[in-house]
Amino acid sequence: MAFKMIYDTRNRTNLDKLADHTKVAAYKWYNYCINNQIQLLIYETIRTVAQQKQNVANGKSQTMKSYHLVGQALDWVLVDSKGNTLWNAYKTANGMKVINYAKSIGFVSGHDWGWDSPHLQYEHKGYGTDIFGKIKVDKGELTMSQYNELSAKIKELEEQLKNKANIKTDTVVDETHMESWDWAIAQGIIKGDGKSMNPTGALSRQQMATMLKRYHDKYIVK
């Protein structure tokens, strides 16, 4: 079964609120987590001034110059297979993978401060230097048109493969092979009328596999 991030919708909704350069880096980091099947929740990104004032008053934040205010920070936590948050898991193997990869692509981790492990901030060119709505972000998703185009191509390739053993030529079937050829056509192992196929040409492995499967399905599988 393909890996599915439990909080994928919520995570992407929060990531989409970030400033442009931060968002690009954050999606690269998020896709790394998906590719490594690391379940996590991104529970906060951009923050209002009112929220920040409340956090300072409650002791949750230490400054009004928060990178959350300018869309250059996110907070995350690992979760288990049922979606339960794992607040003590930042020092685990997966926790450190997430942190170290984020740092490798330019994030600063609050884990290194010793008191804010959930926090990742992307300083870019400094506080408040990122922009909004100017850069197209690769979120690791297909657009509907891309999906439809890919689906059509897959169907085309499947059809080509299905008919691989039925490639026609203008070569006439030799009389010494005619009885066997007619039998194979009648049994559905190959297709043609004996005049438009090449029984003497070299078979590709794909053609041979198709013919053997037809024989297997008709005579071996009951």
From TrEMBL:
InterPro entries: Peptidase_M15C (IPR039561), SLH_dom (IPR001119), Zn_M74/Hedgehog-like (IPR009045). Residues 140-167 form a coiled coil. GO terms for molecular function: peptidase activity. Gene3D superfamilies: 3.30.1380.10. Residues 164-222 form the SLH domain. Pfam families: Peptidase_M15_4, SLH. Keywords: Coiled coil, Signal. It comes from the Bacteria. This is L-alanyl-D-glutamate peptidase. It comes from Lysinibacillus sphaericus OT4b.31.
